[in-house]
Amino acid sequence: MAIRGRVIRDTSSGVGLISANGNQYEFTLEGVWKSDYSPKQDMVVEIDLDDAGKVILAKAVSEADLAKEQAEKAAKLLKEKGLAAFDGIAARVGKNVLIATALVAFSWFFLHVLTIQVSSSFKNGITFWELLGIVNASGGVDALQSTSSMDKGLWGFLAVVAIVGPFIYQFWKKPEAHLGNCLPLLTMLFAGVAIYFNVQDGISAAGNAGGFIGGQMGEYAAKMASEMINQILKAIHVGIGGYVSFVASIYLAFIGVTKYLAAKA
Question: Which helix (H) or strand (E) holds 179?
């Protein structure tokens, strides 16, 4: 069985010496050293011993192997601390609430809440976070084409607060704090209502534009604009992010209202 040790005296002036498991072992190059380069002081090595405790094989441990081992140790420690932190938070807020909140956050920032069928073979998707940029800018369906650079403004702040909502009770021990679980759902509902009114304003604006031109040409322009908006609306579908975040938000709201009613009873 290989033993990990460290060279405390190299073989440049005779017999070398390795320290391993609190013991010291002498070794020589001839017939024992198996690496392509000479042993040096402080080098990490692996050794094999015979029944009498004499070194019969010694070789250097490469820096790549040492780095890999350190990385594995660090990953293991991080995993242990991460699980401990997760268990600690889950014990206070509930594992199901923690998972549901994580699903809301992940789906808002990384999953498409809406998809737009641009062509028969291409779909464009936007996240809820990007959708908030449209809401903040009071944009209509035409704004769906360029969402990533839009400022989220107050809506972005409210979305962050909503994600923190399920944890409010940890800092404010009032029954009303449980209603913080409802914030993600309320944010989605208000954003949906805002988008609806933005679209309606766009349709009205198209009609007004036709009225401004006047006559048959104005009616034709208004009809064309309205038809274009309707075609865009038909191409818009709810994405996986919309379903995941909505279901998770409903669950959080249900838990929050249940806990609030129980605390007020």
Answer: none
Residues 6+ apart with CB under 8 A from 107: 113, 128, 240, 241, 242, 244, 245, 248
Q: What is the dihedral of CA 216, 221, 223, 224, to 10 degrees?
A: 140
CA distances from 245 to 11, 53, 99, 251 (A): 66, 64, 12, 10
Position 161 scores a pLDDT of 94
Q: Please give the pLDDT value at position 122.
A: 56
* Residues sharing a CB contact under 8 Å with residue 209, sequence separation 6 or more, in sequence order: 218, 221, 222, 225
What is the phi-psi region of residue 80: left when phi exceeds 0, alpha when psi lies from -120 to 50, beta otherwise? Answer: alpha
pLDDT in tens, 69-126: 888 888 888 777 777 766 666 667 788 888 899 999 999 999 988 887 655 665 678 8
Angle made by CA atoms 73, 78, 80, in degrees to the nearest 5: 95
Q: How far apart are CA 111 and CA 129, in angstroms?
A: 10
Low pLDDT (below 70) residues in the chain: 1, 85-91, 117-123, 139-149, 201-233, 235
Are 57 and 32 a contacting pair, CB within 8 Å? yes
What is the residue extent of each domain of the chain?
Answer: 3-61, 94-264
Query: 3-61, what's its fold?
Result: OB fold (Dihydrolipoamide Acetyltransferase, E2P) (2.40.50)
